[in-house]
Amino acid sequence: MRLLYKKVNTMSCFHKRLLGLLPCTLAWLLLILLTAALSAPSTVYAQPSAISPEAVVRPALAMTPTLQVTPCADVTPALSLSSIPSTQAICGYVAVPLDHFSPTHTQTISLAVVIYPSTHPTPTTDALFILHGGPAASVLKSVSVLYGVERFYVLPFLDQRDVVVFDQRGTGVSLPALSCSSEAYHHALETIGQIQTDRDFIDSQNAAYVACRQRLQTAGHTLEAYNSLQNAADVEQIRQALLYDGYIRSPQINLYGASYGTRLALTILREWSPHHLSPYQTGDEANVRSVMIEGVYPPEVSGYSRPFAIVRSLRLMFDQCSADPACNNAYPDLENVFIGLAEHFRQEPLTYTFTATVEGETATYNGIAGEQTFVDLVVGSMLNVDSVAATPQLIYTIQQGNTTRLQIKPSPTEAIDRATNFSIVCPEDLMRVSDFEYAMMFSVLESNFPYLKSSAYRSNISSPRMQNLCQTWGIPLVSEAMRSRVNSAVPTLVIAGNYDINTPPYFGESALQGLSQGQLITIPNLAHAGAAGLAAHLPSLKGCPHQLMQTFLAEPATPLADTSCLEELVVNWKLPEAALFLPVISR
Question: With a threshold of 0.85, does the pTM exceed it?
Answer without folding.
Answer: yes
